[in-house]
Amino acid sequence: MKWEKLEKKDITLFIKLTVASFLYVLPIILADRYYNDDLARALRGATGWEGDGRPLGEYLILLLCGGKPIVDLSPLFLILSVLILSFALTLYAKENFKRFDCGNIEAMVLLFIITNPFAMSNLSYKYDCIIMFTALSLAFLAYTLPITGSKAKMCICSVLLGVMIMSLYQPAIGMCIILFVVAVFFCIMEDARYLAWEVIRFICIAVGVVIYKIVVAPHFVSVDDWRYKASKTVLGLGLDAVKAVVNNIVGAFKYIGVYVSGISRLNQLVLALLIILSLITITVNYLSLSTHKTWRRLLDVVFILVSPIMVFVASFSPLVILASVDMRSRIFLTFGGFLFFIGVLLMYFGKKHKVSVMLLLLLALSFQYIYMYAYGNALKSQKEYEKYIVYNVAHDLETLNVSDNINFVSFDGDMPRCRQVRMICDKYPFFREIVPVYINNDTWIGGAWVYHYLQEDIKIGYPADEDLAMIDSIEPMKDNSQYSCYIIGNRAIVRFH
Question: How far is CA 359 from the centre of its chain?
Fold first, then answer.
């Protein structure tokens, strides 16, 4: 097993991917908003990835932060994520795109990995982004291992990479399934001699996943909170297990369908053209060049036509065996692999029709960039509005606590979105999920935003039912159009209207 040295064209591809990816994530950098768990991590220096069964992710952050407590190094983690992924994609292209000579088309096809709209929330995490995208990069690294070299080294490395990916971010393993389908497709189109070794490579990665489940996960996954329930898989082959898997698949299709229904008709048309044109052109290309017997050609065509569906399902297939799945965009990190595969199909057509393919890909990518820049401004606007509300809440609480008699604060209801974000969410309904709203009574996420401006002797927690019933019959100590502040003994309750 030996990697070839990077040539000038490979370095050029790396630079293109890095620059284009950096321009894509620039709105998140400019928004500079703490995203969900970031609020508490930046305040307390807490980690917690080991309890999620992601020990390698925790070690990575500790290494970069110089140990505990971890500190906010943004946007360094996001910049490193872009560099690591761009390098991994460059290595992948060097090993697997030798059959193409499409120049800029290769870069645009690879860009679909990071411009996956569902990955915008993954990119938004100031800490987790490097964990998630390192895991995604390792999936591509697994498919840069040359089959023509040492088979034993390739197998051992594949097993290790399978363990590492799962120890970083489990949903990223779906990219290995996608890249396996791509590898099989290349074997059908080019040289079927390596098909058996591609199957062996995939089995080795799967062995790594099994080792993780048996050896790593039991030692790290928390068993006394929600994370243990979230990690449980469907057991057995009975009717209930089958129903659970089917429900998860249906739920994933519905979730993706909601996103597609919320984008512009032109964007939907371009995506449809990408899929239809790629299937037509690749089928015609194969039939015109294949010299196999009729039964083999028929079998290959069936695989080609079904492969986009296989890749589509593969992008979330590791999740469907979970007993309980909470559909969130961050778990669809590998969905970009579906658009990447469609782009790979088009590259065969692009050998002779570079301009038309480039324009179609450029149009598809432009929608993703527009979507991202709208998202970045939505994050920024909501952050500015939240700061205004948080400043006022902190000021009111400090004013009411002039005698140091308040030591517990709770919230009732969620803070509203600002007017600009409401307008953007009406245009893009998907943003209602990926532009989170603070403040709320979740002390790990929403409440921690207020902690940034309060003294340490005040604690935030969930309101008692009797306190919520009592504030309906008493006058607030502070009141405005957004919220009211109530005092009950040593407890303050902020109720959003």
Answer: 27
With vertex at residue 95, the alpha carbon angle to CA 94 and CA 97, rounded to the nearest 5 degrees, is 70
Angle between the N-to-C axes of helices 104-111 and 76-96, in degrees from 0 to 180, rounded to the nearest 10: 130
Which amino acid appears at position 328 of this protein? R
C-alpha–C-alpha distance, residues 121 and 398, integer Å: 34
Give the residue-averaged pLDDT of 132-159.
91
Residue 412 bridge partners (DSSP) = 495
Preceding peptide of 463 cis, ω within 30° = no
At 350 the pLDDT is 63
pLDDT tens per residue, range 417-470: 999 999 999 999 999 999 998 888 777 787 888 888 877 678 888 888 888 889
Could you give the 3-state DSSP secondary structure of residue 413? coil
Instruction: Residue count of the chain, please give it.
Output: 497
Question: Mapped to the 3 state alphabet, what secondary structure does 144-206 carry?
Answer: CCCCCCCHHHHHHHHHHHHHHHHHHCHHHHHHHHHHHHHHHHHHHHCCHHHHHHHHHHHHHHH
Provide the β-strand partners of residue 411: 494
Does an H or E element contain 218, and which? Answer: helix 217-220
Which three-class secondary structure state does DSSP give residue 232?
A: coil
Peptide bond into 75 cis (omega under 30): yes
What gap in Å lies between CA 279 and CA 192, rounded to an integer? 20
Of the candidates 412, 389, 409, which has an alpha carbon nearest to the alpha carbon of residue 496?
412
Burial class (CB in 10 A: 0-12, 13-18, 19+), 291: exposed
The total of other beta-carbon atoms located within 10 Å of residue 38's CB is 20
Q: Which residues pair with 487 in a beta bridge?
A: 492
Secondary structure (3-state) at 459: strand
Burial 435-463 (b: 16+ CB within 10 A, else e): bbbbbbbbbebbbbbbbeebeeebebeeb
Rounded to whole angstroms, the Cα distance separating 371 from 237 reads 42
Give residue 405's identity as a one-letter amino acid code.
N
287 has pLDDT over 90: no
* Contact yes or no for 148/362 (Cβ under 8 A): no
**Measuring CA to CA, how many Å separate 401 from each of 315, 409, 457, 491?**
52, 11, 11, 10
Contact indicator for 322, 232 with CB cutoff of 8 Å:
yes
For the segment 382-426, what is each residue's pLDDT rounded down to a tens digit? 999 999 999 999 899 888 888 778 888 999 888 889 999 999 999
- The three-state secondary structure class of 307 is helix
For residue 174, give the nearest of 275, 299, 46, 315 by alpha carbon. 315
What is this structure's pTM? 0.92
Helix (H) or strand (E) holding 485: strand 483-488
Contact 431, 375 (CB under 8 A): yes
